[in-house]
């Protein structure tokens, strides 16, 4: 599986996450930590950014130089390196801003994130953000990410279906979570690409995937589609 986290996604991550109303009948089975901006304080950003990244056995961590232009040169001001992380569960890549620097110690299997000038607000914000994204990607390709939703209501239940009547499939083989929650019409939620959905219990929905952001977006899209 190949998933690219673009620079715009990193930029959005430094701002507050838009709120989304999740219907009362569908809630996280466990509390989710609230999204907090990495720019809340200099010590906070520094503490997150400077922590070493541990690369587990079986995971490849490679930093690729920015592609050269047609004339063979690139501007260091706009050039962006790409980090490729590959493990047993998949492969992910992420482009990082030019002011973010990475050091990879292959002997200790550690990677370190730094910035050109931590006194610059934007760089300070992105320092912690880039490090957090890389950590999520490492965990994703090595162990995977999971989320559990629970249905709250008498007689409510969920099933996984291969077809839907109210929404169109976005890609071949897409599955749908069908909810019976007291409405006169069916509620059918498409399972995002790269996410595996299962129902260990009629009132529990288990989401599994390599990319944490995609799983979290499944919570938000549930709120939008079901309201």
In short:
The protein has 227 residues and is an alpha+beta fold. The chain has helices at 7-13, 42-50, 121-142, 212-226; strands spanning 2-5, 26-28, 53-54, 60-64, 82-87, 90-95, 100-105, 110-115, 145-151, 157-161, 176-180, 187-190, 195-201, 204-209.
Percentage of residues in DSSP E strands = 25-35%
Q: What does the radius of gyration come to?
A: 20 Å
- Helices and strands: which structural class? alpha+beta
What fold name goes in the CATH topology slot of the largest domain? Outer Surface Protein A, domain 3
Task: Give the H and E element order.
Answer: EHEHEEEEEEHEEEEEEH
Rounded mean pLDDT score: 79
- With helices defined by DSSP (H or I, 4 residues minimum), what is the helix count? 4
* CATH class category label of the largest domain: Alpha Beta
Number of strands: 14
How many distinct folded domains?
Answer: 2
- In helices, the fraction of residues equals 10-25%
Q: Distance between termini?
A: 32 Å
Any idea what the shape is? elongated
Low-pLDDT residue intervals, each spanning 5 or more residues: 1-9, 11-22, 32-41, 223-227
Q: Give the biggest beta sheet.
A: 4 strands, mixed
What would CATH call the architecture of the largest domain? Alpha-Beta Complex
């Amino acid at each position: 599986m190949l998933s690219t986290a673009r620079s715009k996604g990193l930029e959005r991550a430094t701002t507050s996450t838009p709120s989304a109303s999740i219907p009362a009948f569908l809630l996280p089975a466990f509390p989710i930590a609230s999204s907090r901006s990495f720019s809340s304080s200099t010590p906070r950003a520094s503490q997150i950014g400077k922590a070493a990244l541990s690369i587990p056995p079986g995971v490849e961590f490679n930093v690729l130089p920015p592609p050269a232009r047609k004339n063979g040169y690139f501007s260091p001001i706009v050039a962006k390196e790409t980090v490729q992380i590959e493990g047993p569960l998949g492969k992910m890549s992420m482009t990082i801003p030019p002011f973010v620097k990475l050091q990879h110690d292959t002997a200790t299997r550690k990677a370190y994130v730094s910035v050109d000038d931590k006194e610059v607000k934007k760089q300070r914000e992105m320092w912690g953000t880039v490090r957090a994204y890389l950590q999520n990607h490492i965990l994703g390709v090595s162990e995977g990410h999971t989320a559990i939703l629970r249905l709250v209501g008498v007689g409510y239940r969920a099933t996984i279906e291969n077809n839907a009547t109210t929404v169109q499939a976005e890609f071949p083989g897409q599955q749908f979570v069908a909810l019976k929650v007291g409405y006169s019409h069916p509620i059918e939620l498409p399972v995002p690409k790269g996410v595996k959905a299962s129902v260990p219990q009629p009132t529990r929905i288990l989401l599994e995937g390599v990319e944490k952001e995609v799983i979290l977006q499944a919570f938000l899209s549930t709120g939008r589609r079901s309201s």
